[in-house]
């Protein structure tokens, strides 16, 4: 049966309510202000980091969390557009067991039952993976997990061991642990085991993490001494499965936006969902970035020159430029997409409607600034390009245009091509690396604790990563839905 995105949300909540979970609201994409280890909320478990790190009563909760993966350990910024299943902004469905509220086996059974019995997904198309162990870190192979899947009835040839993919970490420090993941073969009728974690036609949908470890700032992994379970499933990916689409971008959370982009191209360009077409990739990028920016601003981020504001500015500029140069979208037309984003999300996030005018205003301001800069930089480019007759445009000059005017390399390359020159991209990269090194030394997210300070297992209660140590109180009523 075809479910709309609203129906899918409801079915998820109802299922976990029936398993005695308390349903909580999504928190902001701006992480807990005490958590200096994160740029944006990158997983459903972020808001529960305190519960995971300190002692808490046994409890089951579930939610659907707004996430942005555009920096830090989980950074999909440079992949968005290139495939059919990554966005920078996505929603993560999740359920949790704190302090043994349910067992490993129950976690796997809940997931299987929801997918196969409740949603009716063909179990012949599902593959599961488990942690194969990392000996040098003292992390053992998760036999127990493999046996659980066998008991549930998954054929052994579809239970696969992985190393790196099956040890989940929130960031470079913090909670982590072995995991088991469920993957869906979009094609079916074949043995797709060798394509899991390799090919875009087999999609990772659900990650169930056995949160039993924590990594300190020196890189050491310790036991948490408690059994928590943290699961995360890509909402748009699951939606693509239940709506029988091979792409997140063809589900009902994206199609209104794709159609609106199409109407702005002025050339009647349509989104065709192709993996190979460059224009389709730009459709995906623009749709994703405008969504991410809209959510981020609505949650309180302002585009500017540092931190998360800079990521937002970067996403805006990218969509202005790519939308204009690759799809022929007029300057200043892109903010027309904001109401479309909001109209598909407002039922779930009503607060977005009240920030609509502000978001549109910021889009226009940023765009005015951007084109002014590009036009200025173009003039500068013209004078630089006549300085030498060589067919190579210096990478250092291209980098200076980028640093001084914010002119993206891709624009410089295009301008250079127009006059029969090639940009020395290697030199550009070298300059960029030098600059990155300098800025890395100057500013860095401050880690909450320094190497060597990590407490031993026995005095874990004193340890808190910036949170109040000790017993953690669960979120207050307003986070319940
Ligand atoms: P992938 O390997 O596909 O990049 P991941 O292993 O990085 O995914 P997890 O950290 O395990 O992802 O997150 C849990 C779930 O969230 C994934 O199983 C997937 O369904 C979803 N997810 C992760 N990243 C994205 C993204 N960029 N866009 C949409 N959904 C995502
Ligand atoms: Mg990833
Ligand atoms: Mg993965
Ligand atoms: Mg994963």
TrEMBL record:
Signal peptide: none annotated. It catalyses: tRNA(Ala) + L-alanine + ATP = L-alanyl-tRNA(Ala) + AMP + diphosphate. Its cofactor is Zn(2+). Binds 1 zinc ion per subunit. Its EC number is 6.1.1.7. One of its GO terms (cellular component) is mitochondrion. It comes from the Eukaryota. GO terms for molecular function: alanine-tRNA ligase activity; aminoacyl-tRNA deacylase activity; ATP binding; tRNA binding; zinc ion binding. Residues 3-481 form the Alanyl-transfer RNA synthetases family profile domain. Keywords: Aminoacyl-tRNA synthetase, ATP-binding, Ligase, Metal-binding, Nucleotide-binding, Protein biosynthesis, RNA-binding, tRNA-binding, Zinc. GO terms for biological process: alanyl-tRNA aminoacylation. Catalyzes the attachment of alanine to tRNA(Ala) in a two-step reaction: alanine is first activated by ATP to form Ala-AMP and then transferred to the acceptor end of tRNA(Ala). Also edits incorrectly charged tRNA(Ala) via its editing domain. Consists of three domains; the N-terminal catalytic domain, the editing domain and the C-terminal C-Ala domain. The editing domain removes incorrectly charged amino acids, while the C-Ala domain, along with tRNA(Ala), serves as a bridge to cooperatively bring together the editing and aminoacylation centers thus stimulating deacylation of misacylated tRNAs. Belongs to the class-II aminoacyl-tRNA synthetase family. Alax-L subfamily. Monomer. This is Alanine--tRNA ligase. It comes from Caenorhabditis brenneri. The chain holds residues 19 to 499 of 794 of the full protein.
């Amino acid at each position: 049966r075809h479910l709309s995105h609203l129906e899918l949300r409801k079915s998820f909540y109802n299922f976990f309510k029936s398993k005695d979970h308390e349903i909580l609201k999504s928190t902001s994409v701006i992480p807990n202000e005490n958590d200096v280890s994160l740029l944006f909320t990158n997983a459903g478990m972020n808001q529960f980091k305190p519960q995971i790190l300190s002692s808490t009563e046994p409890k089951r909760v579930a939610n659907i969390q707004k996430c942005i993966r555009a920096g830090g350990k989980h950074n999909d910024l440079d992949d968005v557009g290139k495939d059919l299943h990554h966005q920078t902004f996505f929603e993560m469905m999740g359920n949790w067991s704190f302090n043994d509220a349910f067992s490993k086996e129950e976690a796997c059974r809940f997931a299987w039952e929801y997918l196969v019995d409740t949603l009716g997904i063909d179990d012949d198309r599902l593959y599961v993976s488990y942690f194969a162990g990392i000996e040098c870190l003292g992390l053992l192979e998760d036999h127990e997990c493999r046996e659980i899947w066998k008991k549930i009835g998954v054929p052994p040839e579809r239970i696969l061991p992985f190393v790196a993919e099956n040890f989940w970490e929130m960031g470079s420090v913090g909670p982590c642990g072995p995991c088991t993941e469920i993957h869906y073969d979009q094609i079916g009728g074949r043995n797709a085991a060798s394509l899991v974690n390799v090919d875009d036609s087999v999609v990772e949908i659900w990650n169930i993490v056995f949160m039993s470890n924590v990594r300190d700032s020196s890189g050491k992994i310790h036991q948490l001494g408690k059994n928590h379970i943290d699961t995360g499933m890509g909402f748009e990916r699951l939606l693509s499965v239940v709506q029988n689409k091979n792409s997140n971008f063809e589900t009902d959370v994206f199609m209104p936006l794709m159609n609106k982009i199409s109407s702005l191209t002025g050339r009647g360009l349509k989104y065709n969902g192709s993996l190979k077409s460059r224009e389709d990739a730009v459709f995906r990028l623009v749709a994703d970035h405008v969504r991410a920016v809209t959510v981020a601003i609505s949650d309180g981020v302002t585009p500017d020159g540092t931190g998360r504001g800079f990521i937002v500015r970067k996403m805006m500029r990218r969509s202005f430029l790519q939308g204009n140069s690759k799809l022929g979208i007029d300057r200043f037309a892109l903010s027309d997409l904001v109401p479309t984003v909001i109209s598909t999300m407002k039922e779930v996030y009503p607060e977005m409607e009240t920030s609509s005018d502000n978001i549109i205003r910021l889009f226009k301001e940023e765009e005015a600034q951007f084109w002014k800069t590009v036009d200025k930089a173009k003039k500068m480019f013209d004078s630089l390009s006549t300085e030498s007759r060589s067919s190579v445009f210096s990478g250092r000059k291209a980098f200076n245009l980028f640093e001084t005017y914010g002119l993206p390399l891709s624009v410089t390359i295009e301008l250079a091509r127009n006059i029969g020159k090639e940009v020395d991209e290697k030199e550009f990269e070298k300059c960029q690396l030098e600059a990155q090194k300098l800025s890395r030394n100057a500013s860095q997210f401050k880690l909450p604790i320094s190497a060597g300070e990590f407490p031993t297992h026995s005095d874990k209660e004193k340890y808190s990563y910036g949170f109040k140590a000790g017993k953690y109180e669960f979120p207050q009523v307003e986070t319940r839905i």
